[in-house]
Design goal:
Elements (H helix, E strand, L loop, with lengths): L3 E4 L5 H11 L3 E4 L3 E5 L12 E4 L2 H7 L9 E4 L2 H9 L4 E4 L4 H11 L5 E4 L7 H8 L4 E4 L2 E5 L5 H8 L4 E5 L2 H9 L7 E5 L2 H4 L10 E3 L5 H16 L1
Parallel strand pairs: 1-2, 1-10, 4-5, 4-7, 5-6, 7-8, 10-11, 11-12
Antiparallel strand pairs: 3-9
Helix pairs in contact: 4-5
Length: 235
């Protein structure tokens, strides 16, 4: 027996997560709690830029059609983002372990001065760029998309949560978790499994069957945390 798993990640990442779950024998219930709204990308922001930081797969989706030169170095926060960068045509990809702060420190340790462009949603503006600038790097920010919360979990997800059997809820971001919390679902029979402590924070203490956080903020460790949760819940 495996737990049904509610996937709150936005598309297209939700489909990737669902595929990983199915490979492990889980039944995914897709319920993206964030919608990606593209706001436009002006290629002029690339003038002089030889390095781009991507802290989300969604950033690559938003600029895929912009004709970014493939020889620009793509600094990617984790394996999923790095894979998407390669698929988008980048030939120089640096892959982080899932932590944006660690990626920024790695960039500074490389000695590059910039210009460097961080592409992410508007809510991410500031922190990473400020860290890079403080280290002497000419860093800039561009938000070609924003995220909007879904009104509620999907009907299938709510039905699973309201049933008598245990269910796992995967949390990829604090914004998605906050959107779940806003709907005040019944989490009595839920195991909350988060990619980071920050992603769990809006729902901390609400998982009736317990809460698990990935050792490192990447999908591989998230799957390990899910397996740990299942072992504890179904023992």
């Amino acid at each position: 027996m495996t737990l049904p798993v509610i996937v709150t990640r936005s598309q297209p990442g939700a489909r990737e997560t669902a595929a990983s779950l199915e490979a492990l024998g889980f039944t995914p219930l897709l319920s993206p709690m964030l919608q990606i709204v593209e706001t436009g990308f002006d290629p002029a922001v690339l003038n002089g830029v030889r390095h781009i930081v991507f802290t989300s797969v969604n950033g690559l989706g938003a600029v895929r059609s912009a004709g970014i030169p493939g020889d620009i170095v793509a600094w990617c926060v984790g394996p999923s983002t790095a894979g998407a960068a390669r698929e988008a045509g980048f030939s120089h990809v640096v892959e982080g372990d899932g932590n944006a702060g660690d990626l920024a420190r790695r960039i500074l340790a490389s000695g590059i001065q910039g210009p460097l462009l961080h592409i992410a949603n508007e809510a991410a503006a500031g922190d990473l760029v400020a860290l890079l600038r403080a280290g002497g790097c000419d860093a800039r920010f561009c938000a070609p998309y924003r995220t909007e919360p879904a009104a509620s979990l999907s009907a299938a997800a709510l039905a699973a949560l309201n049933g008598p059997s245990p269910v796992a809820v995967l949390l990829h971001s604090a914004k998605a978790a906050a959107a779940v919390a806003a709907g005040a679902p019944n989490l009595e029979h839920a195991a909350l499994v988060a990619i980071s402590a920050a992603a769990l924070a809006p729902l901390k203490g609400q998982g009736g069957l317990g809460e698990w956080v990935a050792r490192k903020p990447n999908d591989s460790d998230l799957m390990h945390a899910l397996l740990d949760a299942q072992a504890a819940v179904l023992r």
